[in-house]
Amino acid sequence: MVEILDTYKQAVDAVRDDYMSRRGVMSFAEYLADFSQRPQLHLRDAARYLLDAIDYFGSEQVKTPWGQVTRFKIFNQEFGDKDARLVGQENTQNAVRDALAAQVRDGRVSRLIVVHGPNGSAKTTLMSNLFQGLESYSRRDEGSQFRFRWVFPTRKSSQGSVGFGGRVHRDEEDTYAHMADEDLDATLECEVRDHPLLLLPRAQREKIMENALAGQPCLVPDHFLQASLCHRCRQIADALMRTHQGDLRKVLAHVQVERWALSRRYRRGLVQVGPQMSADAGQRQITADRNLSALPVELQNMTLFETFGPLVDGSGGIIEFEDMLKRPLDAFKYLLGTVETGELLLGQSILRLNSVLMATTNDDMLEAFRDHHEYISFRERLTLIPVPYITQYSVEKQIYEIQLVPNIGRHVSPHAVEAAARWAVLTRLEKPNTTLYPDDIKEAIHKLTVVEKADIYDSGTAPRWMSKEVFAVLRGKLKDMRAEGSSTWAYEGRFGASPRLIRAILLHASLSDKYKCLSPFAVLDEIRSVCNKTKENPFLDRERESGNYHDPLAYVSVVHEHVLDKIEEDNRTASGLVEEAKYLELMHKYITHVSHQAKGEKVYNEMNGNHEPPDEALMKRVEITVGAKGDARDFRREFMNRIAAWAIANPRQKLQIEQIFPDYLQRLKDTYFEEHRQKVAKIAKLALIELTEPENKLTDDQKKKAQNLIERLVGEHGYCRHCLKDAFAVLFSNRFADI
Ligand SMILES: [Zn+2]
Ligand SMILES: [Zn+2]
Fold first, then answer.
1. 133 near 53, Cβ under 8 Å?
2. How far apart are CA 388 and CA 659, in angstroms?
3. Ligand nearest to the CA of 150
4. Distance from CA of residue 484 to its chain's centroid?
5. Contact 664, 639 (CB under 8 A)
6. pLDDT-based confidence at 1, cuts 50/70/90?
7. 191 C-alpha to ligand 1 centroid (Å)
8. How far away, in angstroms, is 663 Cα from ligand 1 center?
9. Which one of the ligands is nearest to 516 CA?
10. Which of 42, 273, 536, 637 is the most buried (most CB within 10 A)?
11. Ligand 2 mean position to 219 CA, how many Å?
12. Stretch 592-615: mean pLDDT, rounded?
């Protein structure tokens, strides 16, 4: 079914492209009219075009614990297959855009953009998003691109008038561009897709650009100033010039300009060159066929060549060299020579490149290549952009939720995918290098465990032992922390479990005999068995470092505990006994009473409508719970000072207690939950009985409570009765055993 839809989609695209090019046929004069209307749209080389495409789809700000980052929507693939979108990788996206902007400033192809990363990082997805983005952009008005072909009318039709049989156009222009197919004997496509403006001699070209731009800001790419027609077009133009005795207008009558759309499938402007493909471009003589015999006599006597190959096909778009370093070094050197000059020697002629040149490679090969004695000279021509593994739980989880979950033939239990994503991220984190941080946080940085680091990356949650002041400094250094090692090959996100491995783990777990659903416990079993396979997975064998870094087996229990926490949390919420807002409410009450006390005022009691003195017992209770030390008056003063400081720093904002006192709030929450834990466990036990013993002896009231809990866990938390049973069973043997 998917295949049929795919084929259908391609057919629709093909028809649309076809329609577009038909509708878009113009004579050269019509083209120039369009050019003068919107010169900026026409004066784009491939780098500018790709940059415009990225900007066309817009961007959005993504909030992260290290600040806002820009995400470019071309990578959301909203115009196509959203499931193929690039998850995360905002840094990489920005680096790609920066690299293009640099080329635009240079005005020409100047560097090979090398996207590198560990195996299975999102290099291919990134490239394919760009390809699809360009395809989609080129079908929109803003993405119009033009090419031309030479047309030669049949002898009969050309003799209809004084040398020009084409219909005379509205502005009395003589052109063959609009002649019906049957009146044309031959057409010759320019396979390198020369820009139509190149048909004009350089001096006239410059003048026309200047007039059209009329002072409007536009960075005209070198291409329009330096390039000339490809060898064959030059030959044709020269021959026609002789025929028409130097009348350029008559030469241009043979030109038909049309819009063209990029297509990866048809290798139009979007080309992938595999490592085994050696010929990047070539030239061959056109053999005589019907078309040739129809050419004007002058052309028939010439030896015409056609150029071919990926470098030619990719003209006007992107040429991607897949697994660049798997190519023989000589081929690679030749490629870099091409990048340096922006020109390609083809037989006797030179082709000026107009493509964004990109390459992908894995880090191991790139690292080895760096030791090559010629690397230094290559380095100048490369822009290296890393695509690391993801180091945020929630982002990593999305990959599998989008790409894998829909294809799993079983119910996917809550927290199963999350368990895998958590383990993956933990295997990828590196111990921070203490020496890089200011003295006042060095000790804390040294103490930071891998799980704490992961929590900071994921949600910006500070470890409980860390003071607010230290965390504030650390937060300011988060960007640097993530970039640590980026100038070396041991950057964070280079090593660890690849998404490919995680996919395999999830798939295997989904086939487990032990569980009916894709259970988090099956995932953990699977991870445990992967941990024995150090040969296939070298990251399992990395040197351990204090703080639990590089200890994949230990992470299994960490994740197991996390899954139990989550199941307990689901139970707590579903039981309806514990309201999350309650402890927050208590905190707000505390603030009210303390602030009234400070001002010597009474507090309005909503229950009885009286104004009463601040409630000393309530304030004490909160202070004991949050672990306040020393004199209560000092504590309360300091407490109010911090609120005041926050209010000054955040004018006109609603008070965010979570931001000012995350630690106090956490302690209130813990205490509150602990008080209710037993009650929740009792209902869970009833639910387990109800699920496992059909003939149970629960009273009506107990039954009702049990069923309510089951219904809410199924309806609101995504469990089914099978995985709920599994979850309860593990919860009781690990957590509620004493209840
Ligand atoms: Zn050409
Ligand atoms: Zn289930």
1. yes
2. 31
3. 1
4. 21
5. no
6. very low
7. 6
8. 69
9. 2
10. 273
11. 59
12. 90
Residue 710: band (very low, low, confident or very high) from pLDDT cuts 50, 70, 90: very high
Stated pTM of the model: 0.84
Distance 516 CA to ligand 2 centre (A): 7
How far, in Å, CA of 449 to CA of 547, rounded?
Answer: 4
Secondary structure percentages of the chain, helix, strand, coil, to 5: 55, 10, 35
Q: What is the pLDDT of residue 218?
A: 76
Query: Cα(735) to centroid of ligand 2, in Å?
Result: 21
d(CA 699, CA 690): 11
Q: Kindly state the DSSP code that residue 287 receives in the 8-state scheme.
A: P
Helix or strand holding residue 702 (H, E): helix 700-717
CA of 515 to the centre of ligand 2 (A): 9
Burial class (CB in 10 A: 0-12, 13-18, 19+), 485: middle
CA of 194 to the centre of ligand 1 (A): 5
Q: What CA–CA distance (Å, rounded) separates 100 from 489?
A: 24
Rg (CA), the chain: 34
Ligand whose nearest atom lies closest to the CA of 725 = 2
CA 312 – ligand 1 centroid, Å: 11
CA of 675 to the centre of ligand 1 (A): 80
Q: How far is the CA of 724 from the centre of ligand 2 (A)?
A: 7
Q: Name the residue with tokens 């402890």.
A: 583
Task: Dump pLDDT digits (tens) for 156-214.
Answer: 655 544 344 344 443 445 788 888 777 777 888 888 899 999 999 988 899 999 888 88
- Measured in angstroms, how far is the CA atom of residue 591 from the centroid of ligand 2? 44
Cα–Cα–Cα angle for 240, 246, 247, rounded to 5 degrees: 85
The ligand with the least distance to the CA atom of 410 is 2
Span from the CA of 198 to the centroid of ligand 1 (angstroms):
9
The pLDDT of residue 294:
66
Which DSSP helix (H) or strand (E) runs through 146?
Answer: strand 146-153
Distance (Å) of CA 695 to CA 311, 603, 671, 699, 703: 74, 55, 37, 12, 12
8: exposed, middle or buried (Cβ count in 10 Å: 0-12, 13-18, 19+) = exposed
Q: Which ligand is nearest to the CA of 191?
A: 1
* CA gap 660, 468 in Å, rounded: 9
Which residues fall within 8 angstroms of residue 500, CB to CB, at 6 or more apart? 119, 120
